[in-house]
Design a protein that fits this description.
The chain is an alpha+beta fold. The chain folds into two domains: 12-184, Coagulation Factor XIII, Chain A, domain 1, CATH 2.70.50; 192-315, no CATH class. Helices cover 19% and strands 35% of the residues. It contains five helices and twelve strands. The chain has helices spanning 12-18, 245-267, 270-273, 282-292, 300-315, and strands at 26-37, 42-52, 58-63, 70-82, 100-109, 114-123, 130-139, 145-155, 172-184, 192-195, 203-207, 222-227. A five-stranded mixed β-sheet has the order 3-9-8-5-6, with no helix packed on it. Strands 2-1-4-7 form a four-stranded antiparallel β-sheet, with no helix packed on it. The protein has a three-stranded mixed β-sheet with strand order 10-12-11, with helices on one face. Strand 1 (26-37) and strand 2 (42-52) form a beta hairpin. The chain is elongated.
Length: 318
């Protein structure tokens, strides 16, 4: 359905009519993502780069080459260059001469339950050009995520304008889709998902595997569920002002140690002597944790917890 605005908006047709090219002449995108190669025991950094114009809309597919593990974190570096900024302001343009415009990026993912916006910069009629880089860190991504560049009214104007101009704080006068990230990877090192349960525990385990020789170590078969409704969630939510990496390490250590202990209890000593049928099976990953990460399976739960905690403390640089 077509949307009608009762105020001036920036669109391609008006660019051509007025010869104006002032919003995101170039937008440089750099994406960094880490993968773990279990076979060669090393982290792999995947970099994707692109430079696009205002009318471009690009899709990046970040694919784990081994289909084994993908990090919960993606770093997105946006370099935005805007020329001829003054052509946005004044009676023959888009907003009042003394208005203030905001440039931002909105991103959303339905499956990941993310919808956020970040401010990039403010613009006035005194500005000529803009060259700014913004780093956005994304966490707990499960599916595609789309990005829009938005231009909005940050401050009202009173002179050098028209009644047809947008002049209410927050009104968006430009909205451009410019990027879509697609994530492809079958499983994770420690599959983690979220749930919401008022008065529920901070975390719980979900195990649906039937055969540790064949079943993949993925969130379809085994996962740790984190309760967003728990009052302590604020301490493990990256980006929250109350985020506490020590507490997060404690929570993950307890969850992972309990998960492993449950599997070991069900399977007795099979993990030590028998061969997995699938390279990415639960059994093969448990062996990896033991051999490469130093998890202690033979000396009871306390020793197991301590060994797992040592790993997470190192990961969080505690």
């Amino acid at each position: 359905m077509k949307t009608f605005n009762f105020y001036e908006t920036i669109n391609d047709e008006k660019y051509l009519i007025n010869g104006i090219s002032c919003v995101a002449d170039t937008l440089k995108i750099e994406i960094n993502k880490e993968f773990y190669d279990f076979i060669n025991d090393k982290k792999i950094i995947i970099n994707e780069n692109s430079v696009l114009g205002i009318d471009d809309n690009i899709t990046f597919t970040l694919d784990d080459p081994n289909g084994i593990w993908e990090s919960n974190k993606v770093t997105l570096n946006l370099n935005i260059k805007i020329n001829s900024i003054r052509n946005l302001f004044g009676e023959t343009c888009y907003v009042y001469k003394d208005a203030i415009l905001g440039i931002g990026v909105e991103y959303k993912s339905k499956m990941s339950r993310i919808r956020e916006a970040v401010k990039i910069a403010s613009l006035t009629n005194k500005d000529i050009n803009l060259d700014v880089t913004k780093t956005i860190e994304l966490y707990n991504l499960k599916s595609d995520i789309e990005f829009k560049l938005i231009v909005y009214i940050e401050g009202k104007g009173s002179i050098g304008g028209s009644k047809s101009f947008a002049n209410e704080i927050g009104l968006i006068i430009a909205n451009f889709n410019f990027l879509k990230l697609k994530f492809e990877g079958e499983s994770s090192l420690f599959p983690i998902s979220h749930f919401i349960e008022q008065n529920g525990p901070l975390w719980k385990l979900e195990c649906k595997y039937t055969d540790i020789y064949e079943d993949q170590f993925s969130d379809e078969n085994v996962r740790i569920l984190i309760n967003k409704a728990n009052k302590s969630y604020q301490f493990i939510q990256q980006g929250n002002s109350n985020y506490n990496p020590s507490f997060l390490s404690e929570v993950l250590s307890s969850a992972v140690a309990t998960l492993i202990a449950n599997i070991l209890r069900d399977e007795n000593d099979k993990i030590y002597f028998e061969k997995a049928n699938s390279e990415n099976s639960i059994l093969s990953l448990l062996r990896y944790f033991q051999e490469k990460l130093g998890f202690d399976y033979r000396n009871g739960y306390i020793k197991l917890f301590i060994s797992v905690k040592k790993y997470f403390d190192k990961e969080f640089k505690l």
